[in-house]
Known about the structure:
The complex is a heterodimer.
Chain A: H1 7-26, H2 48-56, E1 61-63, E2 68-71, E3 75-78, E4 82-88, E5 98-105, E6 112-118, E7 125-131, E8 137-145, E9 150-161
Parallel strand pairs in A: 1-9, 3-9
Antiparallel strand pairs in A: 2-4, 4-7, 5-6, 5-8, 8-9
Chain B: E1 7-10, E2 20-27, E3 36-37, E4 40-41, E5 49-56, E6 59-66, E7 75-81, E8 86-94, E9 99-106
Antiparallel strand pairs in B: 1-2, 2-7, 3-4, 5-6, 5-8, 8-9
Amino acid sequence: MKRSITRRAALRALGWLGASGFAAMLAPKTRFALAQGNLASLGPEEGVDATVKRLFAGRPIKDGASVIKLDLPLIAENGAVVPVAVEVTSPQTPQSYVKSIYIIADKNRRPLNAKFNLTPATGLAYVGTNLRLGESTDVRAVAEMSDGTLLAAKREVKVTVGGCGG
Amino acid sequence: MADIGRVRIRIPSSIKPGEVIKVRVLVMHPMEIVERKDGKPVDKNYHFINRVVVTYGGREIAQFETSQSVSENPFFSFAVRATEPGPLKVTFLDTHGGKYEGTADIKFT
């Protein structure tokens, strides 16, 4: 595989980072007064049923275990980094595609981990990331199709050491 | 902390036209989690990435809404149908107004 980051490029990037960091220190702090990371803008602390109700407003969720491939470890030693991959085996065509994939960890304080909005240009409804899980929990993936159908799959993960918060 | 916002993108080394490729991207970021004091969450502007935008050839093809329950130094992978040569750009936006970008060039071999 081709190394795309050369030493030269890396050093230059670091130089720029240093310079921009310095500039940020000089810039008045008030520019970032818009606190979008405060508690009010986070998802509310709630049970998973409330989250599902808030997101999908009681729309029926079908069992999608046959089309959603949810790749998770059975036992996660470290709850702070739990790799997850979701693949929906349905072709991404402009007529019918997976619009969004939600990843929800049932026992996290804020159960919605991430929402992935996709378009047909992705070619395959596949997303992966690393999750923080507070304790052993069910993790569900909900796929919203372009016609509004909701499909869900669920897997349990045993967490040895919690990833605190989340 | 000087490393915040360093983005690494990995795409397959050889790509055929029309092929669906899997892209992996990593960004250095603390993804602060909610602090608690006496069991109550502390209200402050937490520093974490809440939006990721993927564009290919200038068109937005995917957009992720992320929360603090994504690990530190977040990693994402996703698929792209390589229809034309062009830049694949991933932009990360955080709650403190930070914007971090990484680009990979899709070329056919």
